[in-house]
TrEMBL record, chain A:
SUPFAM superfamilies: AhpD-like
Any single Gene Ontology cellular-component annotation: cytoplasm
Gene that this polypeptide is encoded by: SESN1
Lineage: Eukaryota, Metazoa, Chordata, Craniata, Vertebrata
Name this polypeptide is given: Sestrin 1
Annotated keywords: Cytoplasm, Oxidoreductase
TrEMBL record, chain B:
Catalytic activity line of the entry: S-ubiquitinyl-[E2 ubiquitin-conjugating enzyme]-L-cysteine + [acceptor protein]-L-lysine = [E2 ubiquitin-conjugating enzyme]-L-cysteine + N(6)-ubiquitinyl-[acceptor protein]-L-lysine
Record gene name: WDR24
SMART domains per UniProt: WD40
Organism of derivation: Propithecus coquereli
Pfam families: WD40
WD repeat boundaries on the chain: 116-158, 203-245
Protein name (Swiss-Prot/TrEMBL): GATOR2 complex protein WDR24
Gene3D superfamilies: YVTN repeat-like/Quinoprotein amine dehydrogenase (2.130.10.10)
Annotated stretches, region: Disordered: 516-540, 580-605
Length: 492, 790
């Protein structure tokens, strides 16, 4: 009974919010239900993800005991079973750790008050215009007693949170620019200053939601039914994927059909997998023989770094319409800028000098006990997760491929591993895959179904979700490393 | 002196000299290593690789090993080690996975000797064999350890750590073939260099990565390990299972650990993050470092004792780009700053006191205070001549115990357990609590409870049986007039009396006078009572008690138990005199005297002449009829609660607060309430009265308090079969798919409370077992054990 009331409240709140956020574009399109005075929400009928056919995704009710327990935990912690969970359950081992961490960050003991946590989540998700996460957390924010006024924009929030805006911006798009001055500015702001523990909590939340936004777009998570855009009785408004976009926009139904039926190039994509495996074998074998010189190795990293900025999809320049979510950011123009564009030189970040295991972990655990442990576990699981399969092949050692993906993402953020030959990346990751990775990690709001479909065509959806897990964890670690290094520098 | 000479001989006749000094490097250091002649040190880092000679007054750069125009990753060193047999031989571990050896004897400028590129990932550690000239060991991030013979081009053998990253490798100093390796997952392995197929022994030493280890230079088989979990552990490896001998808890993750030469129990540590100091610990005293070096401004990355037989020179390199020589005598000693005395109160009023022995010895000459020193106990640590801080370490502990019964805290426990705080009407609660208090001999408290009942329960609610009872009792006390006293008259009397009392409370000293005088006049029996009680404590109780005694629940019961307690008898007459002035003029006369004696204005007006007390009666009638608002007393009650709390009896304050609930809550500010609650809960928990404390938490209305029992509500259970934590559900193990605890009676899974016999470990549902034990005393599982459940 209590749950039901809570749900009603949340629902009412979400309605209230949608009132606030009413979509101008399709504001008139109320359904016929309204004439009867009753409005029945109906799901949009794509399943939890717009990219993955519904039948591929596990149906609630068919799960095994372990998954069921996970669902139960998730429901108990969040009061809902959201689409992210439904997609992540492809990898229950990871999901467990993910849920545990998220639960701890949002609900358990921590230096920040509950409504701050959700508000920071909203701020972070809004950087990527991720209406899905924004909606979820707007509800949660109101539910834990947050002031609805704050939702009208960052300038209505307390000065303390406003101060965080800058860090949020830099962290989301150009984390390598974070300096100890940023940290100092937050910690020494008279009565609005953050404590170190609060700051670490905030940083972890920010990075968590930046990367979760990547996942949301990367896997095309559909809006929740109770959120705007998740049901049809009123036109969804906040969502970027406003219903009018979905039906007449670039996500055309035809395209979906073509692709789901699209075994047009079976032989082609089959060849793709074979080629990839062959390359992996070659690399494995010739590693000892061919020894690249030092300069060669160094330049390979630079090349990869430089190249990563060109791998943008063609619709790069398309301007995303600024919607109401954007009230959370002041500077829409501030986006991902590539490392070496505009002659901006940033020294390469060497993992051997500041890595998560040795340094980051210790710092986080010192300032926000137990979270370091949880995040560490999550990184480990994400990095080491494997089923030793590749598309239709079994018993494949995928560690090389996973490492290439992980290091490629870090490379885009200017993080270099001394002991890695960046030539491998070029061998293993083809262009369409790089485009996808780059888009998901840097500008997730621009991911399209076409991009999702065009890489690794023969691979299973679960494997693509696996790739997404690697992407978001690598991204989170990269952001954390920069932020924590700045904090360390501030402290010394 | 003897020690000094030993050092000198060990050094071959020349003592080391020098001072605390540091020099600036061009770049952050990652590791340092000392030449065996103790006169040179090598510093290695990402962009530095230099040899410095250690002069008397300063470091002098001798050689830069980074030659060549192009910086190579092979020169980006994660670790460096200098051979302890050969002064010309060095090895470095590069961040790109290359192991390089260097021969200083080479005539050319480039001293690089050999390059091993077998590791695929960063090499974390290199280590030379302590006695063999050509054997080098490396441990890498890729999970392999490799043993190289420098006379050959590639590795002799490879040891696999099952793809766990290797953080440190160290050859045993005593055992020729043994080496230890530490891993990122917290394991430590022991290998025989001749058997690369599998490790000799493996155990989990830390939670999280083990960053470093060091073999004890003298004690065979002692291995110190340091990990990310901020601990340094000393293991004895000679026994069948590695046994943890000592554990030092530091404040940050431990990056390096090095045993101090010539000091069996000392080791130096530095940390990976946050903390920049170097500590030297005595492992037997793991809480305060024996010495501390605070020179560095950034984390220390490498430490080395300058000479294997000299305990006073420590060298260190740091991320702040400096190289330091620390002299032990210049170290700061946190012990000196520590407070050497300790004082602690026990729960039951015992007192323990520890101090430097000299202090205690001086004091023991003094005459002890009479009565306070029950069983002084003294512990004295044996002096260890080898220990540099012997003087501080010897201390004496004295324990003073309370006299049994005298001021013990038994009453607190009893009261806490027996008080009723909720679930019944207010009147009953008050009566019950008053009874409890009285039975424990706390009359003042008992009377307070009674009074509270009178204040807050409208008279209609007062059970007439009680009333009659007390009335009957009253008459037995020799006041026949009481019989004519009816309920209606009494109630108004009540109101006036309490008000009177307030007046009295305001002028307490007066009341004392009044009471004592009244007592003297009316009753001779209680002189002893007066004398035996502490006046201040007595005051309030007496003042409040006077009028309340009429309503005492069953004073007869109280009397036999406490024959010396005569206050009720005394109070009764007083009380009735006031109310029943008309029937008993002769008593009134007595009574009338007292106000004059006291001189209290309030009392005088209310009590003095006969007619004025009539008028008072009528006034109180009026007051009552207009339903005297309970607010009327709230100030008084508030003061009373404050009084109790200040006396240290938060129990009373909180109990009253809970029992009265809304009636008083608004008068006391939130913060004070919270303060009382927390103090009381803290006390209860110290006495392990968990149930009571939880009840109090539950009944509290303060948000901050009631959320107390909503924090950390998770109970973690381990599977009894595989010993792993059962994360998802408490009764079934995910790994071995077994149900954890079966009920021995009904053979179903116990999902709630499980009770088991500690003798045979069988058990089951609480109800089932209780039921079973009614019929049988044997174990329900049929194991034949005579089970005991308490």
């Amino acid at each position: 009974m209590r749950l039901a009331t809570a749900a009603n409240e949340a629902y009412a709140a979400s309605l209230a919010v949608s009132e606030l956020l009413g979509c101008k574009q399709c504001g008139g399109g109320h359904g016929p239900d309204e004439e009867l005075g009753i409005r029945i929400p109906r799901p949009l009928g794509h399943g939890p993800s717009r990219f993955i056919p519904e039948k591929e995704i596990l149906q609630v009710g068919n799960e095994d005991a372990q998954m069921h327990a996970l669902f139960a935990d998730s429901f108990a912690a969040l009061g809902r079973l959201d689409n992210i969970t439904l997609v992540m359950v492809f990898h229950p081992q990871y999901l467990e750790s993910f849920l545990k961490t998220q639960h701890y960050l949002l609900q358990m003991d921590g230096p920040l008050p509950l409504h701050y946590r959700h508000y920071i989540g909203i701020m972070a998700a809004a950087r990527h215009q991720c209406s899905y996460l924004v909606n979820l957390h707007v509800n949660d924010f109101l539910h834990v007693g947050g002031d609805p006024k704050w939702l009208n924009g960052l300038e209505n929030a307390p000065q303390k949170l406003q101060n965080l805006g800058e860090l949020n911006k830099v962290l989301a798009h150009r984390p390598w620019l974070i300096t100890k001055e940023h940290i100092e500015g937050l910690l020494k702001a008279e009565e609005h200053s953050w404590s170190l523990a609060e700051l670490v909590h905030a940083v972890v939340l920010l990075t968590h939601y930046h990367s979760l936004a990547s996942f949301t777009f990367g896997c095309g998570i559909s809006p929740e039914i109770h959120c705007d855009g998740g049901h049809t009785f009123r036109p969804p408004s906040v969502s970027n994927y406003c219903i009018c976009d979905i039906t007449n926009g670039n996500h055309s139904v035809d395209e979906m059909q073509v692709n789901s039926a699209g075994n047009v190039s079976v032989s082609d994509s089959f060849f793709e997998v074979e080629a990839l495996m062959e390359k992996m074998r070659q690399l494995q074998e010739c590693r000892d023989e061919e020894e690249a010189s030092q300069e060669e190795m160094a330049s390979r990293f630079e090349i990869e770094k430089r190249e990563s900025m060109f791998v943008f999809s063609s619709d790069d320049e398309e301007v995303t319409p600024a919607r109401d979510v954007s009230r959370h950011f002041e500077d829409t123009s501030y986006g991902y800028k590539d490392f070496s564009r505009h002659g901006m030189h940033v020294p390469t970040f060497r993992v051997q000098d500041y890595c998560w295991e040795d340094h980051g972990y210790s710092l986080v655990n010192r300032l926000y006990p137990d979270v370091g442990q949880l995040i560490d576990e999550k990184f480990h699981i994400a990095y080491n997760l494997t089923y030793n399969t590749m598309a239709m092949h079994k018993d494949v050692d995928t560690s090389m491929l996973r490492r290439a993906i992980w290091n490629y993402i870090h490379c885009m953020f200017g993080i270099r591993y001394d002991d890695y030959d960046y030539g491998e990346i070029n061998q293993l990751l083809d262009r369409s895959f790089k485009v996808y990775i780059k888009t998901v990690v840097c500008t997730p709001e621009k991911v399209t179904k076409r991009m999702y479909d065009s890489f690794w065509r023969q691979f299973k959806h679960s494997e693509k979700v696996h790739v997404n897990l690697l992407l978001i964890e690598a991204r989170m670690q990269a952001e954390l490393l920069y932020a924590l290094r700045a904090i360390t520098r501030y402290m010394t | 002196m003897e020690k000094m000479s030993r050092v000198t001989t060990a050094l071959g006749g020349s003592t080391l000299t020098g001072r605390t000094m540091h020099c600036h490097l061009d770049a952050p250091a990652n590791a340092i290593s000392v030449c065996r002649d103790a006169a040179q040190v090598v510093v290695a880092g990402r962009s530095i690789f230099k040899i410095y000679s250690i002069e008397e007054e300063q470091f002098v750069e001798k050689l830069n090993l980074r030659v060549g125009r192009k910086p190579s990753l092979n020169l980006s060193c994660a670790d460096v080690v200098w051979h302890q047999m050969d002064e010309n031989l060095l090895a470095t571990a590069a961040t790109n996975g290359v192991v390089v050896t260097w021969n200083l004897g080479r005539p050319s400028r480039n001293k690089q000797d050999q390059l091993f590129t077998e590791h695929k990932r960063t090499v974390n550690k290199v280590c030379f064999h302590p006695t063999e000239a050509h054997v080098l060991l490396s441990g890498s991030q890729d999970g392999f350890m490799k043993c190289f013979d420098l006379r050959r081009k590639d590795s002799v053998s490879t040891f696999s750590g099952q793809s766990e990253s290797v953080r440190d490798v160290q050859f045993s100093i005593r055992d020729y073939f043994t080496f230890a390796s530490t891993f990122e997952n917290g394991n430590v392995q022991l290998w025989d260099i001749r058997r690369p197929d599998r490790c000799e022994r493996m155990f989990t030493a830390h939670n999280g990565p083990v960053f470093c280890c060091d073999w004890h230079p003298e004690d065979r088989g002692w291995l110190a390990t340091g990990g990310r979990d901020k601990m340094v552990k000393v293991w004895d490896m000679t026994t069948h299972r590695a046994k943890e001998m000592h554990c030092v808890q530091t404040i940050a993750s431990v990056a390096r650990v090095k045993w101090r030469p010539e000091c069996r129990h000392h080791l130096a540590t530095c940390s990976m993050m946050v903390d920049h100091n170097i500590y030297v610990w005595d492992v037997r005293r793991p809480f305060v470092p024996a010495a501390m070096f605070e020179e560095h401004r950034d984390v220390t990355t490498g430490i080395a004792w300058r000479h294997p037989h000299d305990p006073s020179f420590l060298l260190s390199g740091s991320k702040d780009s400096s190289l330091c020589q620390h002299l032990f005598r210049d170290a700061s000693q946190p012990v000196e700053r520590a407070n050497p005395e300790g004082l602690c109160y026990g729960l039951f009023g015992d007192l323990a006191f520890a101090a430097k022995e000299s202090l205690v010895a001086a004091e023991s000459g003094r005459k002890p205070y009479p009565g306070d020193r029950r069983h002084p106990m003294f512990f004295k640590r044996k002096l260890d001549p080898a220990e540099p801080f012997a003087g501080l370490a010897s201390s004496a502990l004295s324990v003073f115990e309370m006299e049994p019964g005298g001021g013990g805290m038994g009453w607190f426990v009893d009261t806490a357990e027996r008080y009723a705080l909720t679930g019944r009407p207010l009147a009953e609660l008050c009566d019950h609590n008053a009874k409890v208090a009285r039975e424990l001999g706390r009359n003042q408290v008992a009377q307070t409870w009674t009074m509270l009942r009178i204040i807050y329960c409208s008279p209609g609610l007062v059970p007439s049986a009680n009333l009659n009872h007390s009335v009957g009792k009253g008459s037995s006390c020799g006041l026949p007039l009481m019989n004519s006293f009816n309920l209606k008259d009494m109630a108004p009397g009540l109101g006036s009396e309490t008000r009177l009392d307030r007046g009295k409370g305001d002028a307490r000293s007066d009341t004392a006078l009044l009471d004592s005088s009244a007592t003297l006049i009316t009753n001779e029996d209680n002189e002893e009572t007066e004398g035996s009680d502490v006046p201040t404590d007595y005051l309030l109780g007496d003042a409040e008690g006077e009028e309340d005694e009429l309503y005492l629940l069953d004073p007869e019961h109280a009397h036999p138990e406490e024959p010396e307690y005569v206050l009720p008898q005394e109070a009764f007459p007083l009380r009735h005199e006031i109310v029943d002035t008309p029937p008993g003029p002769e008593h009134l006369q007595d009574k009338a005297d007292s106000p004059h004696v006291s001189g209290s204005e309030a009392d005088a007006t209310s009590l003095a002449p006969m007619d004025s007390s009539f008028s008072l009666l009528s006034v109180s009638h009026a007051l009552y009829d207009s339903r005297l608002p309970p607010d009327f007393f709230s100030v008084l009650v508030r003061d009373m609660l404050r009084f109790y709390a200040e006396q240290g009896d938060v129990q009373m304050a909180v109990s009253v607060l809970i029992v009265l609930g809304e009636r008083v809550r608004k008068d006391i500010d939130e913060q004070t309430q919270e303060h009382w609650y927390t103090s009381y809960i803290d006390l209860l928990q110290r006495f392990r009265l968990w149930n009571v404390s939880n009840e109090v938490v539950k009944l509290s209305t303060s948000r901050a308090i009631s959320c107390l029992n909503q924090a950390s509500t998770t109970l973690h259970v381990n599977c009894s079969h595989c010993k792993r934590p059962m994360s998802s559900r408490g009764w079934v193990c995910d790994r071995c798919h077994r149900c954890a605890s079966m009920c021995a009676v009904c053979h179903h899974v116990v999902k709630g409370l499980f009770v088991w016999c500690q003798g045979c470990s069988h058990g089951g549902h609480l109800q089932h077992i209780m039921k079973w034990l009614e019929g049988s005393s044997h174990c329900p599982a049929g194991c034949g054990h005579l089970c005991e459940y308490s």
